[in-house]
Design a protein that fits this description.
Elements (H helix, E strand, L loop, with lengths): L2 H28 L5 H25 L4 H28 L8 H28 L1
Helix pairs in contact: 1-2, 1-4, 2-3, 3-4
Pfam families: 23S_rRNA_IVP (PF05635)
InterPro entries: 23S_rRNA-intervening_sequence, 23S_rRNA_IVS_sf
Protein name: Four helix bundle protein
């Protein structure tokens, strides 16, 4: 397998992973209680959680290394925001303890991957200059 094939496979697998994350977020939000605070957090979480996938897809369509790095940064910010909303829901006791652990772990894993990818992309941009 060539390096470009490997990169393509990773990109496609990560696209599917971020899409699966977005779907999990949507299902969670649909099952949250209808309290005022839950609705507010749900609205923010569904925006940020689905934005991770949307912005990663946009990064995959980037026209330059600079644009790729910028889109990855946006996806990273959205993943970080998703972590915040999940932590707030978790700490607020809206759901039973432990219910959000897997989703929170996935959000943090996405952040780690996006952070590493952005760093690599930014290094490429510096080399291009």
């Amino acid at each position: 397998m060539t390096n470009s094939q490997s990169n393509f496979n990773f990109a496609e697998e990560f696209r599917q992973r971020t899409k699966a994350f977005a779907l999990r977020i949507m299902k969670l939000v649909d099952n949250l209680p209808t309290t005022t605070s839950s609705r507010a957090a749900a609205a923010q979480l569904v925006r940020s959680g689905t934005s991770v996938a949307a912005n990663y897809r946009a990064a995959c369509r980037a026209r330059s290394n600079r644009e790729f790095a910028a889109k990855l940064h946006i996806a990273l910010e959205e993943a970080d925001e998703s972590v915040l909303w999940l932590e707030l829901l978790n700490e607020n006791g809206v759901l039973p303890a432990g219910r959000l652990d897997d989703l929170l772990a996935e959000a943090k894993a996405l952040m780690a991957i996006l952070g590493k990818a952005e760093k690599t992309a930014r290094e490429k941009v510096r080399k291009d200059i």
